[in-house]
Design brief:
Helix content: 10-25%
Radius of gyration: 13 Å
Number of helices: 2
CATH architecture: Roll
CATH topology: SH3 type barrels
Largest sheet: 5 strands, antiparallel
Length: 107
């Protein structure tokens, strides 16, 4: 299990969907909880909005999938199931930019 891996996770009030691990690698390797982002499990039927990034087969998913970057979830590592893939370097940059913008974190 590593930063930027995509696993299936049962989100509170949303059910099982792809989850992107965004915690620091030290946390992922040593702590029982990690930060994840929610990704829709249905095929995307619209372009990504300003707080989303489009992931797809190159990231290990079955089709174009919207990843929401405006809300971080704290997931028990033990509850992350079925590794789906790994976010590509270009989309990692997009996710970081969207998280920063969504949180109002500007340097």
């Amino acid at each position: 299990m590593n930063q930027w891996d995509i696993f299936s996770w049962s989100f509170p009030e949303a059910g099982t969907h792809p989850a992107v691990i965004v915690s620091h690698p030290d946390r992922v390797g040593r702590k029982p909880y990690v930060n994840v982002l929610y990704c829709a499990s249905q095929r995307a039927s619209r372009p990504a909005e300003g707080f989303e990034v489009m992931l797809d087969e190159t990231d290990g998913l079955d089709w174009e999938t919207l990843c929401r970057c405006d809300l971080l979830y704290f997931a028990p590592r033990s509850s992350l199931k079925e590794r789906r893939g790994n976010v590509t370097p270009e989309r990692r940059r997009q996710i970081i930019l969207r998280i920063n913008a969504s949180m109002g974190w500007w340097l």
